[in-house]
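Please decode residue identities from the backbone states below.
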């Protein structure tokens, strides 16, 4: 019964949208370094070969089925020397999505699908300073569990990080809801960052003995949603989101770091979600993750700030009218853009009706007319007065025609 429950879970929505403004695919890493593994990008500071990564960011690319003439699509990417599988690396978000194993309880017996009893998902591994480059992305993962009449706990250092309860009543014919709010499955956010976690499954009365069902628990990317449906064997590993940091030092006063090598890049302190949400938590995070920095591209630039020289590239704002609306003439500039009204109009071209017709006749010093001035939409007419002929735009350009010869009557 419980196994059937577990097998009936599918990932409904893997909310991985490709960033519209992503940098060019061609130079994401250092020259001569491997940039792809299967269908995965390997952006610097991550790298496979020696000299191709910053300390702690080594990754391993392996064939799923060992050596042989297998297709490149059969390659998998792993953090470090290769137990934690990478699903996606994001440079701007400074995150890596991993394929994370469930904790599994067979009745009351813990049978881990990951390392013995714990979930570490590469946390704390990396640059060997005891802190590591990876931590659980703060506030962006949840404890997710399946089973029934069970409370599932996520513990770290003997403290509870998150807990959720999943129920099932005999005779209750309600269907499980998509949000897994406690009927056959449950979920609850995780708000801390530890170097390792441990799953626990208890009966509703708090005892660890005699669980009524097999129980599965995951640390799961918060953005993923679930729905019951056809069985799917892949459901035993689900994506979790890790933060990564260049260095567990701050940016040293005025935002410098040897890692931010691109032009138009800067060092960003307190880059953790924790710091963004609550600065006072930033400096005292349990595992020391609070002190850290990453690199960012300047405003108006996108790309890879860790690459020397040209990693951060100018964004052509004019190509992205949804983000940078322009209802006039858009001109890209280095690090910015200009949005101007078409000739004859003035105002704020960034808003739909921002450009107004210029009444040229009201500004004779800007739009000289020495005849009769008539404003039009986007332009104006200037004609010599009735009975005169010539060039109304220059002073004295209009004159009367008298019997075949012109008299230089000055008009205007
Ligand atoms: C890579 O391929 C897998 C399976 O074909 C797919 O689920 C995944 O979305 C792909 N990832 C990227 C980054 O294209
Ligand atoms: C690769 O990373 C792992 C763990 O992050 C580390 O133990 C190992 O020494 C690294 N290997 C190299 C060649 O840097
Ligand atoms: C980056 O973070 C944003 C906001 O949480 C998210 O919508 C987007 O999917 C993320 N991109 C990647 C590549 O992880
Ligand atoms: C995640 O790992 C499991 C078990 O190794 C594997 O079956 C599954 O294909 C992996 N998922 C992806 C998207 O590669
Ligand atoms: C957690 O609790 C166990 C048993 O009570 C104890 O042996 C262990 O030292 C504790 N660990 C920490 C990190 O407090
Ligand atoms: C707790 O409940 C389980 C059944 O779920 C039962 O086997 C066990 O005896 C109960 N323990 C206590 C202390 O009541
Ligand atoms: C940082 O820069 C500001 C101006 O940009 C300057 O006033 C300040 O002295 C600098 N601080 C250090 C420590 O260099
Ligand atoms: C990390 O910080 C230390 C101390 O400031 C510095 O010596 C080292 O070069 C930094 N490493 C990187 C990759 O920025
Ligand atoms: C930030 O965290 C501190 C320490 O836990 C707390 O006292 C403070 O109220 C928090 N501030 C906000 C805005 O949440
Ligand atoms: C942070 O840690 C420092 C020393 O480790 C301590 O003096 C300070 O009170 C702590 N701050 C908070 C908000 O816990
Ligand atoms: C034009 O309108 C936009 C959107 O309301 C505003 O952000 C911008 O500051 C305006 N520009 C000028 C020059 O007023």
């Amino acid at each position: 019964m419980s196994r059937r429950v577990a097998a009936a879970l599918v990932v409904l929505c893997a909310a991985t949208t490709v960033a519209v403004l992503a940098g060019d695919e061609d130079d994401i890493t250092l020259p001569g370094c491997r940039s792809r593994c299967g269908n995965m990008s390997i952006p610097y500071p991550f790298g496979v070969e020696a000299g191709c990564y910053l300390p702690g960011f080594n990754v391993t690319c392996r064939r799923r089925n060992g050596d042989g003439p297998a297709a490149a699509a059969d390659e998998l990417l792993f953090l470090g020397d290769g137990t934690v599988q990478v699903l996606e690396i994001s440079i701007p978000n400074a995150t890596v999505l991993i394929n994370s194993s469930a904790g599994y309880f067979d009745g009351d017996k813990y049978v881990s699908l990951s390392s013995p009893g714990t979930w570490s998902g590469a946390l704390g591994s990396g640059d060997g300073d005891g802190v590591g480059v990876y931590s659980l992305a703060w506030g962006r993962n949840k404890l997710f569990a399946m089973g029934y009449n069970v409370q599932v706990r996520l513990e770290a250092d003997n403290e509870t990080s998150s807990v959720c309860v999943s129920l099932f009543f005999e005779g209750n014919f309600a269907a499980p809801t998509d949000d897994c709010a406690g009927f056959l499955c449950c979920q609850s956010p995780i708000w801390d960052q530890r170097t390792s976690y441990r799953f626990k499954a208890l009966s509703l009365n708090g005892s660890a003995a005699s669980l009524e069902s097999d129980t599965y628990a995951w640390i799961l990317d918060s953005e993923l949603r679930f729905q019951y449906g056809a069985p799917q064997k892949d459901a035993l590993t689900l994506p979790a989101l890790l933060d990564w940091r260049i260095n567990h030092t701050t940016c040293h006063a005025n935002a410098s770091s040897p890692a931010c090598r691109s032009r138009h890049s800067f060092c960003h302190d307190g880059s953790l979600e924790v710091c963004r949400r609550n600065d006072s938590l930033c400096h005292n995070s349990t595992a020391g993750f609070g002190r850290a920095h990453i690199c960012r591209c300047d405003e108006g630039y996108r790309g890879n700030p860790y690459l020397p020289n040209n990693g951060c590239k100018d964004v052509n704002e004019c190509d992205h009218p949804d983000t940078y609306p322009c209802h006039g003439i858009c001109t890209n500039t280095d690090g910015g853009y200009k949005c101007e009204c078409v000739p004859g109009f003035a105002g704020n071209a960034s808003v739909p009706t921002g450009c107004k017709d210029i009444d040229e006749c009201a500004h004779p010093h800007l739009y000289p007319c020495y005849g009769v001035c008539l404003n039009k939409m986007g332009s104006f007419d200037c004609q010599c007065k009735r009975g005169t002929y010539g060039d109304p735009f220059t002073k004295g350009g209009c004159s009367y025609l008298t019997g075949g010869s012109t008299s230089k009557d000055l008009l205007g």
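Observation: Helices lie at 2-7, 273-277, 279-282.
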